[in-house]
Amino acid sequence: AAPAAPPRPAFKATLGGDPAVIDLSILAKLLGYHPHKVRKFAFKFLHNAQDGLAQMERALQKGDLAGVRELGHRLKSPARTVGALGMGELMLQLEQLPADGMPERAAAAILAQLWVLLEQITEQIMTNTTFADDN
């Protein structure tokens, strides 16, 4: 039998998409519900997250687990700040990779999940930060 999928984090439902992917109300509250600031910071997050995941790929290819852990630590807070709580949890798992066992395999599996999640986050941000008053 196939192994059971890991349980999804139980985040409360909010407006504007799947909170297990991203809860933009967290960022909106932080920025005083100013839609253009939310979009600006969300897009900056997407750029930095994509760059960070690419850096992780390179570190993992070089066998640099310390680098993977450090990048997980560095990307964890921004993910949580924008409301990408699931991504924040995966970053925490990377930050806390054990030294024994097969940490490279675990890191590669988490990184694969992160790329898929980043695609979903991008879709949510694109859908939920486009405003009718834009010209």
UniProtKB/TrEMBL annotation:
<dbReference type="InterPro" id="IPR008207">
    <property type="entry name" value="Sig_transdc_His_kin_Hpt_dom"/>
</dbReference>
<keyword id="KW-0597">Phosphoprotein</keyword>
<dbReference type="GO" id="GO:0000160">
    <property type="term" value="P:phosphorelay signal transduction system"/>
</dbReference>
<protein>
    <submittedName>
        <fullName>Hybrid sensor histidine kinase/response regulator</fullName>
    </submittedName>
</protein>
<dbReference type="InterPro" id="IPR036641">
    <property type="entry name" value="HPT_dom_sf"/>
</dbReference>
<dbReference type="GO" id="GO:0004672">
    <property type="term" value="F:protein kinase activity"/>
</dbReference>
<keyword id="KW-0418">Kinase</keyword>
<dbReference type="Pfam" id="PF01627">
    <property type="entry name" value="Hpt"/>
</dbReference>
<keyword id="KW-0808">Transferase</keyword>
<keyword id="KW-0902">Two-component regulatory system</keyword>
<feature type="domain" description="HPt">
    <location>
        <begin position="34"/>
        <end position="128"/>
    </location>
</feature>
<feature type="modified residue" description="Phosphohistidine">
    <location>
        <position position="73"/>
    </location>
</feature>
